[in-house]
Specification:
Elements: E1 20-23, E2 29-36, E3 39-47, H1 48-54, E4 61-66, E5 72-80, E6 90-100
Antiparallel strand pairs: 1-6, 2-3, 4-5, 5-6
Amino acid sequence: GEKRLVQKKKTSHPEWDKCWDTGVVPGRVLQVILLNGNTPIADATMRQQDIVSKCKSDTVTHIWINLKPAGRILAQARHILSMSEFMNDRLDLKLKGAAEAML
């Protein structure tokens, strides 16, 4: 059979209501896990490109991300275009204070 090596970068643990950025990479998938203490209560997996496509050029855009099994979370996103052909565009994200999760 065919064997594949899947390489994953170290997981980041951004703080709630703090901005973090990530390089825009084709095929990148982002996962958000909502915790109550150490207990996962909801999560969302989305393609990075889906978030980027909702952003207006270099301005802050607010988007709702649907959670599973239920609920949604408000995120702030900004697509930062690279001025160099040697650097990736950046996606600046912040999970905001509003979360609606069914507990």
